[in-house]
Specification:
It is a single chain. The strands form five sheets. Strands 2, 7, 8 and 14 form a four-stranded antiparallel β-sheet that branches. The chain has a four-stranded antiparallel β-sheet with strand order 3-4-11-10, with no helix packed on it. A three-stranded antiparallel β-sheet has the order 9-12-13, with no helix packed on it. It has two domains: 10-72 and 185-252 and 331-352, no CATH class; 95-183 and 253-324, no CATH class. It has ten helices and 15 strands. The chain is globular, with a radius of gyration of 21 Å. The protein is α+β, with helices and mostly antiparallel strands. The chain starts with 17 loop residues before the first helix and ends in a 31-residue tail after the last strand.
């Protein structure tokens, strides 16, 4: 198989012009290269290079290639672990986008009676929007008006100097819209870095590490309490242990996998799954979803029950949403990379270093030289 000509935008979105498409390809390609290189050994030990991780545009994908899809639950596990029951965790998860850390964020719309009428979900990384805002600010405004509110104004999204504010009034709460991800760890850079770090096979004191928690603690590529990080890392590492080369599939991104409505019931007996709609991204790579009952049905989302309980929080729905990423693996059994025999160690550790992957600020992408997408704590 030949090399990929260029990396495509997440979801095969069509918002970018020619210059934007080139800039996106450069950003993803450079981010993958840096992740494959790994951190500077003078700063971080036992974490570079990641020679089983490769760039689809620079290295051939061999004929034995297979895709591996990794899925996880969208509800934030960190909130579940620290809550005293369902009601408290649902309230907490609905209260702030900053706790929605499983690469899925949402905003809830309610009627005058307080019942939920719509919940909007997004898994779009902020880097794409940073680039789109540089190449076509008018497109950003039009998309906000289309998907969030027709009343969005240019000044709501952009500073006087034209700089895009990702955490603007229409994308910073759980009640006034959700255009793209803003939680500090929910970035494409984090996905790229985590997948690369997880390709390192580790044999500690003669024992090959195989469990998700062993690997995330030793390799320090994420937060052990999340649904996503340990599971992504464990799944990628299982492939790496088969001596295969690994890449993130094109288009690189996080995508909705499914909504399961087992145990759900609508008051008119209709299928609750009918009210789940993907509204952005292509059919195989959806990045935006809405749960909403058409007005003509005569009831709202708040009248639907899950295991006998009416939907009062958007978080109740996320218990049943799965998010996914897809990796490509090839050259099985051919890697000559030796396992690391020690865990990741920071030369001058800081308090933040002990907790894994850095919380990411949204990068300022430049059309000429996109910067590094991720750094380690």
């Amino acid at each position: 198989m030949t090399k990929l000509p260029s990396y495509n935008p997440p979801g095969h979105l069509t918002d970018l012009d020619g210059a934007g498409l080139k800039a996106w390809d450069t950003f993803i390609s450079d981010s993958v290269d840096r992740a494959a290189q790994g951190p500077d050994p003078s700063e971080v030990l036992n974490d570079s290079p990641r020679s089983q991780y490769y760039n689809l545009t620079r290295t051939d994908t061999d004929a034995d290639a297979t895709e591996a899809t990794v899925t996880w639950t969208a509800f934030p596990r960190t909130i579940k672990l620290t809550s005293l029951g369902d009601l408290q965790r649902w309230k907490r998860a609905d209260a702030s986008r900053d706790v929605q850390d499983e690469y899925c964020e949402w905003s809830v719309t309610r009627g005058t009676d307080g019942k939920i009428t719509k919940v909007t979900f997004t898994c779009e990384g902020p880097e794409y929007w940073s680039l789109l805002a540089q190449t076509d600010p008018a497109a950003v405004l039009a998309l906000y008006r289309q998907f969030v509110d027709p009343g969005v104004q240019h000044g709501d999204l952009f500073a006087v100097d034209g700089t895009y504010n990702p955490r603007n009034r229409w994308n910073d709460s759980t009640s006034h819209g959700a255009m793209h991800l803003v939680q500090r760890n929910n970035t494409l850079g984090a996905e790229i870095e985590l997948a690369a770090a997880a390709t390192i096979v580790r044999v500690i004191d003669g024992e090959e590490l195989t469990t998700e928690q062993q690997l995330v603690q030793c390799s320090m590529y994420g937060q052990a309490e999340r649904n996503s990080d340990p599971h992504i890392g464990g799944s990628v590492n299982a492939i790496a242990r088969q001596k295969a080369d690994i890449a993130l599939a094109d288009p690189v991104g996080l995508y909705f996998n499914d909504l399961s409505t087992d145990g759900w019931a609508a008051p008119d007996g209709s299928d609750p799954k009918d009210y789940w709609t993907y509204v952005r991204g292509d059919a195989d790579h959806p990045v935006r979803a809405v749960y909403e009952v058409p007005q003509e049905r005569g009831f709202t989302v708040g009248d639907i029950t899950i295991n006998g309980k009416p939907i009062q929080f958007g978080a109740q729905i996320t218990d049943f949403i799965t998010i996914r990423l897809t990796a490509v693996a090839c050259r099985f059994g051919r890697s000559t990379t030796e396992p690391k025999t020690a865990c990741v160690q920071f030369i001058q550790p800081t308090p933040a270093a002990a907790s894994g992957l850095a919380a990411e600020a949204v990068p300022t992408l430049r059309l000429t030289a996109p910067p590094s997408s991720v750094s380690r704590r």
